[in-house]
């Protein structure tokens, strides 16, 4: 379905000045990044396609380490992040997390 619409965009008549260049840039971007933007396929596999889950984790961790009066030594913060990473890995085994 997307491919048919995409092909239709390539054949459409552009009447506004400058719009053809914009359309060509958008289509070029879609071609280059198509493997990463297959959202329907990813969602059907149960993957999250939005940034909400990641943003929520970052916010939670930021609140955890930035409470009033807290000062973290780099080694201590690295240890906390390692523990948190392991907890996340166990909670979401299908997601590859950075070590």
Question: What features would you describe in this structure?
Answer:
The radius of gyration is 22 Å and the shape is elongated. The protein has two domains: 2-37, no CATH class; 52-91, no CATH class. Helix content is 64%, strand content 0%. It has 99 residues and is mainly α.
| Proportion in helices | 55-70%
What would you report as the Rg, rounded to the nearest angstrom?
22 Å
Strand content: under 5%
Rounded mean pLDDT is 77
Order of helices and strands: HHHHH
Poorly predicted ranges: none
What is the domain tally? 2
Largest sheet: none
Assembly state (oligomeric): single chain
Shape: elongated
What attributes does this structure have?
elongated; 0% strand; 2 domains
